[in-house]
Specification:
- The protein has 192 residues and is of the alpha+beta class.
- The chain has helices spanning 11-20, 22-25, 43-55, 102-115, 132-140, 176-186; strands at 2-5, 60-66, 69-80, 86-93, 122-127, 144-155, 158-168.
- It has a 7-stranded mixed β-sheet, sandwiched between helices.
- The longest helix is centred in the middle third of the chain and has 14 residues, at 102-115.
- The radius of gyration is 17 Å and the shape is globular.
- The protein starts with a strand and ends in a 6-residue tail after the last helix.
């Protein structure tokens, strides 16, 4: 598995995965609220927008490669500096590889990068209450629930409630990936 910056070279693979997974992703995808002047973005528009935000230090878009092919994305959004040192993380994955442990590792690597070289203090993840796959990711990563946000984000054509999860650098000094790998090995068959 490889986590790397999203680039224009990902266009064909990104489109193929998104089209093939449209039904799988639709209930969880952000949508443009009615009355907004913003339009849905093409891959090219999305990549340009995220690239501009990345250059300004406000976002970090990552592609997930698994077994040599593009399978999803993790994006660090809304990076705030100053006294907050905060960001939020969002992600999506090709349904064909769901359940293989790719997303927990990808999110753990992303958070460790944010806490390490990026120097952030807190990461939040907002998840729709009915999104059992995403809830399993934060459970595996041992990220605690900190709140509930009614009508939080415009998703799948309406304002949707979200459960909020957060982790700070003090909660996991050994790193989120190390904690994930340790807890996975502790729960492996044959361990006590």
């Amino acid at each position: 598995m490889l986590l790397r910056p999203l680039s224009m070279r990902d266009a064909a693979a990104w489109r193929e995965v998104r089209v093939r997974n449209s039904d799988w992703l639709r209930p969880w995808d952000a949508t443009v609220p009615p009355g907004s002047r913003q339009r849905p973005r093409s891959f090219r528009g999305l990549t340009r927008h995220l690239g501009r935000l990345a250059r300004e230090g406000q976002a970090m878009p990552f592609a997930i490669d698994y077994r040599g092919r593009f399978v999803g994305q993790v994006t660090v959004n809304n990076i705030v500096r100053g006294s907050a040192l905060f960001a939020s993380v969002g992600y999506w994955l090709d349904g064909a590889v769901a359940g293989e442990g790719i997303m927990p590792v990808s999110v753990a690597l992303t958070i460790d990068h944010c806490f390490g070289p990026v120097g952030l203090h807190r990461i939040e993840i907002a998840i729709r209450p009915e999104n059992s796959n995403s809830l399993r990711v934060v459970e595996k990563l041992q990220i605690r629930e900190v709140g509930y946000a009614p009508r939080y984000l415009h998703i799948d054509g309406d304002w949707r409630d979200h459960r909020l999860f957060a982790i700070t650098v003090e909660e996991c000094p050994e790193g989120v990936l190390t904690r994930l790998l340790r807890s996975s090995s502790d729960s492996s068959p044959g361990t006590s």
